[in-house]
UniProtKB/TrEMBL annotation:
The keyword Nucleus does not apply. Keywords: Signal. The keyword Signal applies. InterPro entries: DUF4249. This is DUF4249 domain-containing protein. Residues 1-21 form the signal peptide. Residues 345-376 are annotated as: Disordered. It comes from the Bacteria.
Amino acid sequence: MLKNKSFILLLSICLMFYACVEPFSLEKQQEIKILTVDATINDLSGEQSIKIIDSYSGNDSFYEIPVTNAKVEIIVNNTERVVLTERGKGVYVLPISFHTRVGDTYKLAFQKDDGTKYESAEERQTSASEITQIYDEFRLDGIETPLGFNPAHYVYIDTNDPADQKNNYMWTWKLWERQNICATCIGGRFFLTPAPARCKAETAYSDVSYDYTCNGACWDMFYNKDLNVFTDVFSNGKPILGRLVGKIPYYASSGALIEIKQQSISAEAYRYLKLLADQVQNNGSLVDTPPAAIIGNVKNISNQDEAVAGFFMVTSVRSKRYWISRENAKGLAAPIGLVDHPIVYEPSQSDTSRPPLAPCNESNTRTPSRPEGWIN
């Protein structure tokens, strides 16, 4: 739902959704306000949350306002109600003990503070099969860019598709790369004091840029940007072999760690995501506004003409980590690097406190914690 953040970000890209899964054309308007719901629950242990915001777009601008003070519930098997707790910024959190169970049904229901009520269609939890094998190949023409092709590792998986049921799949990935540069200052230098550590603009350095080494171990984290879904309608029970799940740029000659998640999704969720993937990925990137809106499964109970963005989804997740050694790339191409420019360090001076080391600040895209499965 791209933490399942990679998936959450993907769902929030589309600006308009409506009542059931089908596309319709967008018309030019001065400003469009859309209630947007990012909601995916799964069978993993750990904290799960959903996000509800009002999205505004128009005149080449886009901004969001969190929906606060809402009453949010997950309805299990049309009997049990699980209440979510508001955290702030439109985020509502499930109890830490909550996770979905195969065979159970789930609905999202919430009421805004003005009394307007919304409810999703019912989603049933299905089981997910295990990933049996992961492997990669190196390709010089791996990823097309406006300036040509960048080398990349193509990562593939094998899995067994159960013959006794219809299955729909979604694959996502998360990549860890070792990072040595933790700050880049343009038109100034990096200072540790006064806190917080930061770049400071300085007239004497207005025409230079400096990079600063991390103060310890640090990893950057990357997430998939493409939607990758599949249905076994025409291949039920046959092994899924050589499914391409990721194109990983050749950032560095040293190895990298990837975690691949294989998720079971409903037939309705598959149709929704396939339409979104076909529409957006065939007409640009996932950061582009799609040429047509896609109808989701969240509705205003009293006004079903209201456009509501998002698809409440229930998934079963199986994950596996794989070490990309990059041995198959050595001598074939130069790494593209983790930063988008040649590295220039601040020159040493008589002041032995300079240049300082920059902290590796924990975030959704960076961590000082060694990931499980990392190989030095």
